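Still learning. Any example?
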Amino acid sequence: MAVIRSERVAAFLLLIAAALGLIAANTPIGPALMEVQDAHFAIPGTPLDLSVGHWISDGLLAIFFFVVAVELKNEFAVGQLNSVSKAVRPAIAALGGVIVPALIFLLITAGSGYEGGWPIPTATDIAFALGVLAVFGKGIPSRLRIFILALAILDDIVAILIIAVFFTADPNLLLIVLGAVGVVVFGLLSRLLGTRFRMLVAAAMVVTAALTWSLVYLSGVHATIAGVALGLAMVRKPAMKLRHHLEPVTNGAILPLFAFSAALVAIPQVAPSELAAPFWGILIALPVGKLIGISLGGWLSSFVGPREKRPHLTLHGLLAAGALGGVGFTVSLLMNELAFAAQPEVADEGTLAVLLGSSISIVMAAILVSTLAGTYRRLRRLRLEAERRIAAA
């Protein structure tokens, strides 16, 4: 289990699953797999009737968002975002990493009728970005790691808000209110986990969470928001313990399964000139827009706050952070599904663009992070040698 918690392993599994999905979709078994993905499964006696693909993206992915929300809450309470001074600089960089890719996408797709896909290149896959950092970033100073972690977390917050606001159609207010009541009950029950009735309480929480998810799904709000709300409502300490237990499940099963399902796309047999505008918008905005936006936002943030408390972030470090931010994968794939749900051909091209754009960002991040880490390792060796010479003298 400890191995699956590793950021490196999580990133590797996600990449392999996406590659297998794309390869499988373009082999003779591809049509059969897509039929399975489109097959519907209903829960008898309820209005819940989802395809296999939607059970994965709306159901299982809600557990991943629950884990993300728990981590967000912990960071705001005792972590890297527990004060305004700590949060403001990565927040400005994250904002740049949302605005610039969105503008590039809108510029490329202007007049095409597909402008509604602008949120797709704004997301960062926190698990994958940190995985790439873990693989290539040995020797990078803690201040840069903290900046990138806070940046990725804030980016997730923006993504959650975008999903909640822009991908909710004709919401049922009564069901939303009932879902909110479920969240409150879930939070109150979590306060009783320390009593002798904890097993009964845990069972009640599972039932409450399932009912809340169902209400949110049926309300028209994307069901992953239920996972976010439940994660934020749960008492922090037991929530962190639950996150610890769920992490191998999300890293080893849920995220790879979602990546495989989302990447199950037949490569269109068309000339590049015939690809829809969103393909090019995502392909360019994800790696280039994130790189420019985060780097520019990070540079602007260096002028915020007292000079002595500002972190020293070099241009090389900011570019590395920007390249890591361009690894969209999970959340970008989800946004692509939501944005082009009524246009499956465009959604398929969008999926390919997310995979290609993220892959470009991975290569750029690997180069920038490894060279940056090498620079810091050389500086550390030179400093140690100088200290030894001084001590010997």
In short: The beta strands are 40-42, 49-51. Residues 168-221 form one domain.
